């Protein structure tokens, strides 16, 4: 099923996704003539525009090494890993919070989001013109494109704060469009834009259950509602979190936590949205995602980066089944019979990036779980607690704990329950690319990094710097984040 969703459409790509001289790579590479557009004026042609967006999530700069650097290695859940002398270009800087505006990870992640946004804007411009394609299909595809654009802008606003708002295909000859591409909007404006995209998507997307089996990986109404709830969580709109999560239906916790992260658990009852990887022939996996995180050294199968920290290990309570489903320990045997020898260079590795079938390949069958039902429950728990409804908050929290073979939480007060929910998010969602942002939004960052002997500078490290190349090109239209 994943091949059908993510097989790259090369003809569409050639017309729409070429390289631009501009830093954001958002210029229309080549206008499609009326004759050429007629080639796409059918159902499959319409789908190909959105397939190109999904395919962007498989790219090295979008979902792999630099993405892991910013969202995981920079957090207290992970260390750089690998060999001491292998910096991973700048992963040592991210690990120590000494990155700067010229760090390659900062630049790659920024640029990748706008490359993806460019594909969204192309789809949103051309699909309405395809009047020979089914109208209902076109409306759904527009909803998918808006959901995916919202995902990218949510990535941007959490990492960099206010960013340029590029909501159309810019004209190379338009000074207004040049300014649009180089001028930061406030984070509030970006959040409002994300909310509108998601609201539009919710109105036209089907539920996950309505998709045929070969399209189950597409964006759904439940995915848009869940992301809108998460966007509300980051803005402390607690009533909205409850409102949107109340509308998420048709999902349930997978009885076995470990099963979620196996191939057999992909797109299952708990899955709301995943970045799809297909390892095979032809391979259409996430470039280097598994390889860069695989065990390194004698008996290993990868580069060894993004290794679980000791403080993450210590965060698990005795008996928590999530620990051994999240962390590969040297000297143990994995579920598929693979022995991880003590000769590997690091004591721990990320189990959620492990591919049993094609672990040594550059593109594997590993999916990134982007939204899961467990997070819906934890968002509801946090929102209920902040609204003073500790009874409902505890009920949602305990559902997640019980699945992990843990007893009900003993927290009673709002303050204690808040701490318990934050802790539960850490162990439930470890290595799912949220921890750094959770630390920032909840005000835990300075204390959490101090445990590791690292200095989180309040007023600086809440955001990553905008890439220096972008600042240079902006020529005064956009200012750098504070203290970089």
Give a quick summary of the entry.
This protein is mainly alpha-helical.
Describe this structure in words.
The chain has 484 residues and is mainly alpha-helical. It has helices at residues 2-6, 10-16, 34-38, 43-56, 60-63, 65-73, 91-95, 104-126, 135-160, 175-182, 187-204, 221-234, 238-246, 257-260, 310-315, 322-326, 373-386, 390-403, 414-428, 435-442, 445-450, 468-474, and strands spanning 78-81, 271-275, 305-308, 327-329, 348-350, 368-372. The strands form 3 sheets. A two-stranded antiparallel ribbon has the order 1-3. A two-stranded antiparallel ribbon has the order 2-6. Helix 17 (373-386) packs antiparallel against helix 19 (414-428). The longest helix is centred in the N-terminal third of the chain and has 26 residues, at 135-160. The protein is globular and about 65 Å long. The protein starts with a helix and ends in a 10-residue tail after the last helix.
Provide a count of the helices. Answer: 22
Q: What level of helicity do the residues show?
A: 40-55%
Strand order, largest beta sheet: 1-3
Can you write the helix and strand succession as a string?
Answer: HHHHHHEHHHHHHHHEEHHEEEHHHHHH
* Rg value: 22 Å
**Uncertain spans, ≥5 residues at pLDDT below 50?**
1-22, 25-30
Characterize the overall form.
globular
Q: Per DSSP, what share of the residues sits in E-state strands of 2 or more residues? A: under 5%
């Amino acid at each position: 099923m994943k091949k059908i969703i993510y097989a790259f459409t090369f003809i569409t790509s050639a017309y729409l996704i070429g390289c631009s001289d501009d830093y954001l790579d958002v210029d229309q590479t080549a206008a499609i003539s009326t004759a050429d557009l007629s080639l796409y004026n059918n159902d499959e042609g319409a789908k190909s525009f959105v397939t190109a967006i999904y395919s962007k999530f498989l790219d090295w700069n979008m979902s792999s090494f630099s993405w892991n650097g910013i969202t995981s290695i920079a957090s207290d859940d992970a260390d750089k890993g690998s060999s001491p002398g292998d910096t991973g270009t700048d992963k040592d800087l991210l690990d120590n919070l000494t990155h700067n505006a010229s760090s390659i990870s900062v630049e790659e992640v920024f640029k990748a989001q706008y490359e993806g946004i460019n594909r969204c804007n192309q789809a949103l411009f051309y699909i309405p013109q395809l009047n020979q394609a089914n109208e209902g299909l076109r409306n759904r595809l527009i909803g998918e494109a808006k959901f995916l654009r919202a995902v990218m802008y949510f990535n941007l606003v959490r990492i960099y704060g206010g960013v340029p708002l590029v909501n159309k295909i810019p004209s190379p000859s338009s000074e207004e469009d040049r300014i649009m591409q180089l001028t930061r909007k406030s984070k509030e404006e970006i959040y409002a834009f994300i909310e509108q995209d998601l609201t539009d998507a919710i109105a036209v997307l089907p539920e996950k259950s309505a998709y045929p089996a070969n399209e189950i990986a597409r964006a759904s109404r439940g995915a848009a509602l869940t992301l809108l709830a998460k966007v509300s969580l980051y803005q402390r709109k607690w009533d909205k979190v409850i409102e949107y999560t109340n509308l998420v239906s048709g999902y349930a916790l997978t009885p076995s936590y470990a099963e979620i992260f196996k191939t057999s658990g992909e797109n299952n009852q708990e899955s709301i949205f995943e970045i799809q990887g297909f390892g095979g022939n032809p391979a259409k996996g996430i470039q280097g995602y598994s390889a860069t995180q695989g065990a390194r050294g004698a008996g290993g199968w990868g580069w060894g980066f993004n290794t679980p920290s000791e403080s993450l290990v210590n965060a698990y309570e005795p008996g928590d089944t999530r620990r051994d489903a999240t962390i590969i320990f040297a000297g143990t045997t994995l579920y598929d019979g693979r022995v991880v020898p003590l000769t590997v260079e690091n004591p721990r590795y990320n189990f959620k990036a492990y591919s049993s079938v094609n672990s040594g390949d550059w593109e594997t069958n590993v999916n990134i779980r982007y939204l899961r039902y467990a997070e819906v429950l934890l968002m509801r728990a946090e929102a209920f607690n902040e609204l003073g409804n500790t009874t409902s908050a505890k009920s949602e929290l305990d559902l997640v704990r019980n699945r992990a073979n843990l007893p009900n939480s003993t927290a009673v007060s709002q303050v204690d329950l808040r701490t318990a929910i934050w802790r539960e998010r850490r162990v439930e969602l470890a290595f799912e690319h949220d921890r750094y942002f959770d630390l920032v939004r909840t005000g835990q960052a300075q204390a959490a990094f101090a445990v590791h002997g690292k200095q989180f500078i309040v007023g600086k490290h809440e955001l990553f710097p905008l890439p220096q190349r972008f600042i240079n090109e902006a020529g005064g239209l956009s200012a750098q984040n504070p203290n970089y």
